[in-house]
Amino acid sequence: MNTNKSLFYLFLFLGLGLFVSCSDDDEDDGGGDDGEETITQVVLTFTPTRATEFDVVTATWFDADGEGTGAPTIDDITLVEGADYEMSVTLTNTLETPPEDVTAEIEMEDDEHQFFFSFTDGIFGDPMGDGNIDNKDDAINYNDFDANNRPLGLSTQWTPGEPTTSAGQFRIVLKHQPDLKSDDSDFNTGGTDIDITFNLNVAEDPNAEEETITQVVLTFTPAGGGDALSFTWLDADGEGVGEPAIDDVNLAANTEYEMSIMLTNTLEDPDEDITEEIEREDDEHQFFFSFTADIFSNPAGDGNKDTRDDPLNYNDEDDNMLPVGLSTQWTTGAATTSEGVFNVVLKHQPDLKTATSDSNTGSTDIDINFPINIQ
After folding, report:
1. What's the Cα-to-Cα distance from 99 to each of 12, 41, 91, rounded to whole Å?
2. Cα(139)–Cα(204) distance, rounded to whole angstroms?
3. Which residues contact 234 (CB under 8 A, 6 or more apart)?
4. Beta bridge partners of 343
5. In this predicted model, what pLDDT tens digit does every residue of 190-233 receive, in sequence order?
6. 3-class secondary structure, 328
7. What are the pLDDT digits (tens) for 34-65?
8. Which contiguous run of DSSP H or E holds residue 3?
9. In this structure, are residues 142 and 90 in contact, taking their beta carbons and an 8 Å threshold?
10. Distance between terminal CA atoms of the chain?
């Protein structure tokens, strides 16, 4: 009887041991103890959403041996300034036969996953900034959300800014957050499925029709009457070797002015009036301004070049009721004791000008610093 009991407990022990071993093996399937995905290939596909003349751009990260000794191959990304792209992410485990589509798994488990991004500051006009890895609430244009209306990131929207002279960086991180993803979860929450940094270049738009402007005249007309004052920037040889000539802007203290801007291409014969062209294409253009802080009493501050919603008194607008800036209103402050700066920027924003577009959107037609004195 004792022998039978001993055999019974022995078989029970072995059976339990076998059961626990199988359970551990099941937990390890598809990514290790923490449930992270096995991903050996990531493809980013940037598809232009408005301008059909731009090409679809793909960039691939490929780690052929998984967590082996071989280094991954990483494509560079080159996008066109001002183009609007939808970026989709495709993830694959190529170590399986046939290759396993991890993208589908992420979609099914969207309440457990989120992509985070960081990039060279200002390399995109939209979203602005440097991404949401350092701060989860920083701007990223997610197109997809889970059932709790929390972002996923298999589809996102991107508009490159100005052309780059050297490569920037674009980092994409996929976090696995089972039972952790919430309104407050961030880049530091959960395990990491991928963390990849691509080189990113922004190329000039080959179809861009930037204006040739060699002369800009600012005319300040006193609102209370009196002589108009004109100040000129002239680049006689265009983009040649000669330096532009720039007048100092000298205005009376505590005086309201209407400022008009005239733009000319003096390299044509006769001179080409660019002002008329800007008026015709006002839905594609906007002036932005920056100036020495508080040199004007109205608008106060330092202009709207850094933040588009900062005060600026536009007198003109396009058919969409968005500002243009060929005519603006200015009231000077007290007399200054040192020279300030008055910066005038004209942005060309075809198919890009919106209620939220700013000085980083589109290409730059002019960017001029006038010295300014209030007397």
Report:
1. 40, 10, 10
2. 24
3. 214, 215, 244, 245, 246, 266
4. 290, 369
5. 999 999 999 999 998 776 666 789 999 999 999 989 999 999 99
6. strand
7. 456 789 999 999 999 875 678 999 999 999 99
8. helix 2-28
9. no
10. 114
pLDDT in tens, 112-163: 999 999 999 989 989 999 999 999 999 999 999 999 999 999 999 999 988 8
**Quick one: residue 48, left, alpha or beta (phi over 0 = left, psi -120 to 50 = alpha)?**
beta
Q: Give the chain's largest Cα–Cα span.
A: 121
Residue 8 has a pLDDT of: 45
Cis peptide bond N-terminal to 270, omega within 30: yes
Which structure tokens are listed for 194?
A: 């991928």
What pTM does this model have?
0.58
Cβ atoms of 174 and 156 closer than 8 Å = no
Give me the half-sphere count of Cα atoms (radius 13 Å) on the Cβ side of residue 9.
5
Spatial CA neighbour of 174 closest among 283, 37, 291, 274? 37
Spatial CB neighbours of 291, under 8 Å, sequence gap ≥ 6: 302, 303, 340, 341, 342, 343, 372
Closest CA to 35 of 107, 113, 101: 113
The tokens describing 43, both together, are 């493809």
pLDDT of residue 27: 34
Tokens of 361: 């959107």
Q: Kindly state the DSSP code that residue 140 receives in the 8-state scheme.
A: -
Secondary structure class of 191 (helix, strand, coil): strand
Rounded distance between C-alpha atoms, residue 119 and residue 197, angstroms:
9
Q: Which of 259, 176, 163, 183 is nearest to 216 (CA)?
A: 259
Unique residue bearing structure tokens 């939220």: 356
Residue pLDDT, tens place only, 68-79: 888 999 999 999
Calculate Rg over the CA atoms of the chain: 30
pLDDT tens string 272-329: 999 999 999 999 999 999 999 999 999 999 999 999 999 999 999 999 999 999 999 9
Mention every residue, 6+ apart, whose C-beta is less than 8 A from residue 268.
none
Report the Cα 4 to chain-centroid distance in Å: 75
Count of other CB atoms within 10 angstroms of residue 366? 19
